[in-house]
Amino acid sequence: FWFVPSVEVKIEVVIPEKERSKEEMSPNGKASPLIYKVNGTARHYHLEEHPISSNPYHNPKDVVEASVCHVKDLENGQMREVDLGCGKALLIKESGEFHAVGHKCPHYGAPLVKGVLSKGRVRCPWHGACFNIGTGDIEDFPGLDSLPRFQVKIEKEKVYIRASKQALQTQRRTKMMAKCISLSNYNLSSTNVLIIGAGAAGLVCAETLRQEGFSDRIVMCTMDRHLPYDRPKLSKSLDSHPEQIALRPKEFFCTYDIEVLTEMQVAAVDVKSKIAVFKDGFKMEYNKLLIATGNTPKTLSCKGKEMENVFNIRTPEDANRVVKLATSKNVVIVGASFLGMEVAAYLADRAHSVSLVELEHVPFKKFFGERVGRAVMKMFENNRVKFYMQTEVSELREQEGKLKEVVLKSGKVLRADVCVVGVGAVPATGFLKQSGINIDSKGFIVVNKMMQTNIPGVFAAGDAVTFPLALRNNKKVNVPHWQMAHMHGRIAALNMLAHGMEISTVPYLWTAMFGKSIRYAGHGEGFDDVVIQGDLDELKFVAFYTKSDEVVAVASMNYDPIVSKVAEVLAAGRTIRKRDVE
């Protein structure tokens, strides 16, 4: 390449992924792409492939090698956490071969030794992420990073692991990413890939494109003022600050040339001209489009709904403000949804009182069934949360412009300094009404198994779509959950690159309340029976949701790793019959 000698040049070398040792890291645990700056413009180039050096560890001082066990200590299908002195690894034996990878799930740090090993991958016991035991690569979500992989050798019947100390400490590995062409040639108002929405689906799409060597412009736009963050944490941990829950640091987006336009709302899409029109009039041309706008919370329709101190929790600022206003005050939560229940649990020991108003007679009835719903309700009542069931809000009353009381249709009046509304959401697709993109009667974007809409080059992902779920005979479903959004983003990216990849993942979700988690896998919509093992009163149980004779979903509390086990069985395409679990 050519450059003017007087210009400062920074070169970091990238070896293509298949040629590069999996443990090699830049100091922050992130793989470094080739960049050099000319006249202040970042330019990225794809290098020729280099043969890997015989020693994959550049710094011998960073390497540790230890004997961890005898070859006969592990049977096939067994996993063991082993200590190398400066950190641990997960040693796995499958089909007579040993493998070693990081021992903690990079998502929230779950011990993978307690997970499920099946056909060359290990599944996290907490949230269901899956990792290839041979490469450490992430194969199902949530989370963005893969596991570091370590070298295993057998000498005199002993198993040795050789690993980078740094990788043992970070326990995560960011996959190699592209290799971008010069950004200086770009017209500001045109991009190769435009991603509308910066949640999990949008971010994973952008990262997957880069991991696959895509070297053209990627622009993400979001109405949010923040870079992509871990939205499920908002209702589980309301005092989280944006930087604490950021999915990637700011430098990451600069390094890999993923441009993020914050506080930018798309008002319309012209699919014929391939132009997105923003609310402020700015227009951007695209070649490929991903719509991942998520959903918009429903608001109350009663008198006083516009009042101060009435919240839909949508942003970190909303969540932080609720905690501040609720401390030692009276809180009313409308809707026993996941969001409503998680917020109630978080505020129970911070607020003076927490009241929950719900139309059904038990929380989570449609999702977890009546018996599990009752057990959860009892746990909340034992933690001072008061329920007002089978009623709704008729009016919000104020005093000096601030919320004072919530009036229920039952006639009951509740004291309230703060009101949090969690009564569901609708897909954020209103701006597509005249676009010609196929939208169903509920406002969901209809996509196929490759996340393609009816318009060539336009993909959609995340909470705003319905897609064919392999698990339920390709029934079109909406699965508004974090793990699924990640997978949608990945599938969309691969198909933008014409890989012909179809989605086949098993839905997996979790909720956390009072330090306890309910894990769930499958798609239980329309279940007609629930088979429960264990003790609901002790909150140590597993519930199998069946439709006619087949198990379609499973939920558990204090029963790991049963949900991950069932997810693996379903992922393998096997059917679990009702009689198998009774």
Automatic annotation (TrEMBL):
Q: Where is the Rieske domain?
A: 66-161
Task: Provide one Gene Ontology biological process annotation.
Answer: execution phase of apoptosis
Q: Which UniProt keywords apply?
A: 2Fe-2S, Apoptosis, Electron transport, FAD, Flavoprotein, Iron, Iron-sulfur, Metal-binding, Mitochondrion, Oxidoreductase, Transport
Q: Which Gene Ontology CC terms are recorded?
A: mitochondrion
Give the location in the cell. Answer: Mitochondrion
What highest taxon heads this organism's lineage?
A: Eukaryota
Q: Name one Pfam family in it.
A: Rieske
User: What Gene Ontology molecular function terms does this protein carry?
Assistant: 2 iron, 2 sulfur cluster binding; metal ion binding; oxidoreductase activity, acting on NAD(P)H
Entry's CDD domains?
Rieske_AIFL_N
Q: Which family does it belong to?
A: Belongs to the FAD-dependent oxidoreductase family.
The role this protein plays is: Induces apoptosis through a caspase dependent pathway. Reduces mitochondrial membrane potential.
List the protein's name. Answer: Apoptosis-inducing factor 3
